User: Fold Flap endonuclease GEN homolog 1 from Geodia barretti.
Amino acid sequence: DKREGRGEEGRRRTGRRTILQSYVNECCNLLDSLGVPYIRSKGEAEALCSILNYTGMADGVLTNDSDSFLYGATTVYRDLHTTERSPTVECYTMKDIHEKLALNRSDLIALALLLGCDYCPQGMLIHNTYTVTGTCSYSLVAYTCVYIYTVELL
Assistant:
């Protein structure tokens, strides 16, 4: 079972988490030494960072994951590369997403449910019965999919 860390993939994920946790602990020790305040999330760090960004307590969320906008982030920085010659980072904003794609947060959540995301990798297009078009309400489709998915589980 992947969630319990069993099997080959579970071992790989557990190994990465151990390395990541060691790195996080070192960073926290450094921040403590410098007197810099920080927050350690008890749950999904992506969600906490997104809330901090949404409420204006953080300028953005630095991540390579795509869940931040679903959690409410307004600015996401991705693909940070720190080279001496030319450090780079890509910046995405909800404002740009809304202006260029005409999608809001609810639409992104619906698309994540339909197409797949961290918590529902296969997506919820049950028997391919839904066709999403530009005139379709993504929020209504997501609500319908969640309802059908819940009923099928019962």
